[in-house]
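#dry-run=false #mode=assembly
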Amino acid sequence: MGFKEFCFRKSLWVFHFGGASCNNCDIEIIDCLTPRHDLERFGILLVGSIRHADVLLVNGSINRRDKDRLLELYNQAPKPLLVVAIGACGCTGGIFAEGNTFAGPVDKIIPVDAYIPGCPPKPEAIIAGIVKLAGKKG
Amino acid sequence: MGRKTLIPIGPYHPLQEEPELFKLYCDGEIVTDIKWETGYNHRGIEKLSESKTYDQVFFLVERICGICSTSHPFAFANAVEEIAGIEITDRAKYIRSVIGELERIHSHLLWVGLAGHFLGYNTVFMWAWKYREPVLDLFEMITGNRNSYAMFKVGGVRRDIENQKIPAIRKEMSVMRKKLDLLTGAVMDDPVIHARTKGVGVLTQQDIIDYAAVGPTARASGVDIDVRRDDPYAAYPLVNWKVITAQAGDVFAKAEVRLLEMYESASIIEQCIDALEKMEEGNVALKINDIPEGIGTGRAEAPRGEVFHFVVSDGSNSPARHKIRAPSYTNIATFKKSCIGQTISDATISLAAVDPCYCCTERMAAAYDASTGEKILNANELINLSLKRTSEIRKSDAGHE
Ligand code: SF4
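#status=ok
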């Protein structure tokens, strides 16, 4: 087992970056933590600082104002770091891709490890995505 | 005056699920001034809307805000139907109201949860969000998606609520009442919640009028406004319900208004599905071929207040201009009144009390240098530029005469 695999074996800590989104993806991410899905029982925890995180969840289309901040956050994060793009917006820009403020999608700005499509993806899909990713890397 | 400290909250703060930046200026524990910065969420929706057909715009306005993903289509449909002079069928009206009220319930539950979280009452948070799930399940059953329902179109709704689905809705509404009783009891009778919310973040009736606040924020301060009653649309004039108001204007009153509104919503839904059951299935959408030239305004009461859409049609298949005003746009301005003079710990709940929604509110204009990407002008500077230009033209005009 390499160092990278070792890091992702247990208790993934997650930092959530909500870009220019419609809020639905954000809500569904929080929904994953509430009683019906309760991700915390697997040790998955939403943390307040990127410096504590193993996973960076990015949702929403990225506008010009978010772009530099996203890059800055990525640079501040301890590596190895898994980046997950959530929702149609995170993956491609979705309905906002033609907007005049659009500066994404996410993978043009930072490297992305997994894409979870959907508008918004169901909590089950988000969980499945993260579990798959952790399984592959760990 | 003492020393001033600046406390930034955001833009990517773990407490908020949306990006926004508050700057609290503090003197010791007391907040003396507040500024906020948005624009992290700006997506250029009004402009995008001009490039879409009327049918597609519904999917776009739905994605202005995920929580009120029915209010915006509601207001947009009202606006376009005003232009074209369309009167939708009764069944479509009832279905629209059912969807609108289900949304109000899930949105208010979400707020109760978040408010509990801000107060450090995570039990309320988890409870409320747990109770919210069955409402989302109903949405999934009716529309196929938990959020962003794609139910509306010009001239009616996209799908029917078949009669076989109605018993499930009715059952959930009666269960919901019991859950609401529990939740209301837990919030209203808890001495700690009283101590934290009573007399905190007070907005007087005059403040509401000055800042043109809307929705539960206004109703909690004794301003009796509700678009559903004042400018009736959909099935609201066909059913019995009342507008909930409170007088105190503090955070507690806002919670009270929202909790009691959920009972009203449940009763509206029950009356609507009773009416639906007595009708023939089908016939929920009229066939609309053309939208004539004209100007239309549409209003709808979102969970947070009045949503306003203004549409200009030039007779083509997409709007020539589409202007949107979301309720949080005016509600957020009340922070100046509700937060200043509070302690920092009370400021957060005062901020949360109006249930601000930033993805609705994002309005920002800034000019960027195309080659370097550097910001050269912000909105105020742009406005000043425009003012200057007008005054110059005035001057030169005066010179000609
Ligand atoms: S993917 Fe859909 S639900 Fe998610 S932020 Fe974008 S528009 Fe909203």
